[in-house]
Amino acid sequence: MRKYILLVTWCLAITTAALAQQTNEQLAAYYYDHGEYAQAAQLYENLYKQTDNKYYYQRLLSTYIQLEQYRDATRLVERRRKNNSKDLYLYVDEGSIYLKQKQEKNAQKCFEKAIDAITSNLQPIPDLAMAFLSIGKPNYAALTYLKAREKTRNRQLYFNELVGVYQQMGNYKAMTDEYFDLLDHAPSMMHSIQISMQRALQEAPDERLSDGVKQALVSRVQEHPENKTYLEMMIWFALQQKDFLFAMEQAEAVDARFPDIGSSQLIRVAQIAQNNDDYAVAAIGYKKLINKGKDSPYYFDARVGELEVEYAQINQNYTIDTKSLTELKEKYLAAFDELGKNEKTIPLMRNYATLIAYHGNDAQSAVDMLDDALEIPRLKPQLRDEIKLELGDLLLFVGQTWDASLLYMQVEKANKNDVLGAMGKFKNAQLSYYNHDFEWSKSQLNVLRSSTSKLIANDAMELSLLISDNMEDDSTYGMLEIFADADLMLYRNMLDSAWDAFENVSRHAMSHPLLDEVLMRKAQIRMKQGRYIEADSLLQRLVDFYPTDITADDALIMQAELNEEKLNNPQKALECYEKIMLDYPTSLYADQARKRYNILKKR
Questions:
Q1: Do 310 and 328 contact (CB within 8 A), yes or no?
Q2: Residue 546: strand, helix, or coil
Q3: Is residue 574 within 8 Å of residue 595, measured between CB atoms?
Q4: Cα 26 from Cα 167, distance rounded (Å)
């Protein structure tokens, strides 16, 4: 019984002591947080004596410094160092006390003692470096990591930490040297170096780091022309900066010096340039690969890529001259003779069909080409349905609306709850609009307004509002029917007939809600006809008279691209992009406008 009572008494004593310590800690923290450092110091002195805890030590040291009790602070550090000689950060604590007293030389002596005390034991290194960083001495943090490397003879040690410190210091030369010195010693680390460098380039506040990296790379390539690792890094860096011409020049240099990997670099840069719409650079790479001959492993890809690039370049124009069209058509036919019609050449077949149908006035041959594509065995279902949608568009273009609708329905049914299915549904709803079945079209479009695809949802909303606004104001749907007929003529490239129909709407409905849409369609007609100044004027009228309409941001982005690409008026394009950002921040084009604005602003 007596032992039991003693045990209970002992447990109660421990519990009471623990509760008292917890209460004192909370009280000390309260005083400290409220700037009552004298009261906090008394409590932390007792807590530190009882536990020798590092946290209480740091809090007590901070209160002494806040109270300017520098002698007490110094004694505290010295006493702790006697019992914890391996904790090198304590030298930094002492140095920080001297800094508070403006005794720079004494502080420096403490910091140097800490560096001199570093051994091959790495345990104290993180705390020491962090202590230097916490008092704003990143140069000493760098020395800490470098001395640890020296003592352990490990060149790769603390790579990321050093890069981070140099970045914080703004010492970009040391930073780039760190990257490339490591690359010299360990080429296998190239991917890790690229990840670290990419993060640093994204975080850099200005162009100094990217300029420094480029200069360092150029220098190292010149010093070590036999080192293909630096050439590969140069290509990678140029691609990160979207300097595709420079990347292609480096890929050509790799190809000249190291033929075993040159072709792979050429195709890589060409494809990336193509994906970023830099067709001129992509064409250089593809041409060089084609010139290597049919035995080249990338010959097939280069042939396909070259034609895709030529198609993209010519398709950028609203009008295509007959000579260019004929030459490109002959190149496609030659490619089909050489490469065949198979799964790998399907991109060419699809582009060729678009080219000759919408620009070459040969829709039937285009339909036949897509039919051939669908006959290719073992096509992936998604690819097959994409071709079906394109075939449906062609059939609608030539007036076979029933067959077009059937294809759209097939795609929708095969891809329920999928973007491709939503596209099929939208195209069918659009076809119903052309056929004056406005009620059914509107009901389908309203479903699509919640589509996961922003583009489809936006298009569905625009067409739905076009229909609903004009159904309410015109019970006979007379103007809406004329407008839908004109829209179909525009789709079928019957430009003069479409223009007359839209003019008819303008003349007979001076205050009709369709008038903003009429301006948009007339601008599209003039763009297709290559009458760009008239198109710009029509778009400007739309923005001026209908700034709150759903078509306003569409007009602005079209006007911006028109002025940038066709009218050679970058200032007007800048103004349009800026207006989208400021007046239409939720627009689907806001991100695109911001990117183009920043690019034009730098020129």
A1: yes
A2: coil
A3: no
A4: 38
Report the predicted TM-score, pTM, of the whole model to 2 decimal places: 0.72
For position 599, what pLDDT does the model report? Answer: 83
Could you tell me the residue ranges of all domains in the chain?
A: 510-602
- Residue 221 pLDDT: 87
The reported pLDDT for the residue numbered 146 is 94
Assign domain 510-602 to its CATH architecture: Alpha Horseshoe (1.25)
pLDDT at 9: 45
Contact indicator for 453, 419 with CB cutoff of 8 Å: yes
Q: What is the pLDDT of residue 313?
A: 83
Q: Which token pair is 508?
A: 């007979």
CB atoms within 10 A of CB 346: 22
What residue ranges of the chain have pLDDT lower than 50?
4, 6-20
CB 43 within 8 A of CB 28: yes
Residue 444: what pLDDT? Answer: 93
CB-based contacts of 538: which residues, under 8 Å, 6+ apart? 519, 520, 522, 523, 526
Alpha-carbon distance 507 to 502, whole Å?
A: 9
Residues 6+ apart with CB under 8 A from 219: none
DSSP 8-state code for residue 258: -
Alpha helices in 187-341 (DSSP H): 190-203, 208-223, 228-240, 244-257, 259-275, 279-290, 299-315, 322-339
